[in-house]
Write a structure and sequence with these properties.
By secondary structure, this protein is mainly alpha-helical. Among the domains are: 80 residues, no CATH class; 42 residues, no CATH class. 89% of the residues lie in helices and 0% in strands. The chain has eleven helices and no strands. α1 crosses α5. Pfam families: GerD (PF17898).
Amino acid sequence: MRGRNCSLLIMMLIWMIVAGCADRQQSEPMNYDETKKMVVDILKSDEGKKAVQEIMKDEEVQRNLILDQKTVNNTIEKTLTSEKGKEFWKNTFEDTKFAEGFAKTLQTEHEKVIKRLMKDPEYQGMLMDVLKNPQMEEELLKVLKSKEYRQYLQQQITDVLSSPLFQPKIEEALLKAAQQAQSKQQGGGSSGNEGGGGGQ
């Protein structure tokens, strides 16, 4: 809870700083890059770090955060859903590096959740119940028989077979199969010759 409150307060501070600077420079509105640089510089500066630390140590601030959580949440929600907030997040996610990092973080967390769920007996039972549901089975069969799925599967197989990582494995498997077939043929020929020689 305290970690969440700290994050909320820091976000509020950032937005108050940005809003204050924007009001003072209405004649020359700040663009996204300028705003981003300003916020980063403030947070990285010793003064900025010290200010945040001092605020978080203040007993009244801590008490208000605990007692007035609803107000804090409402303030953050209004700030993030305001026109300025929407524009800020829109520009932020257009930054390819930020978007990539954010996506990787979500993917990692998602994978962790899935792995934990797959080890959970209760979740396993629920999943099996869903898969055994006649309606679910019918829908699954429809998907597997659909033209779109067959095309998707063919494309996936083509991609796998074309993969530089997979091709050596295919070549190795084919070579091994050919050697085994050749060994069987040679073994069969030897047996036949021995049988013919015995008949004479």
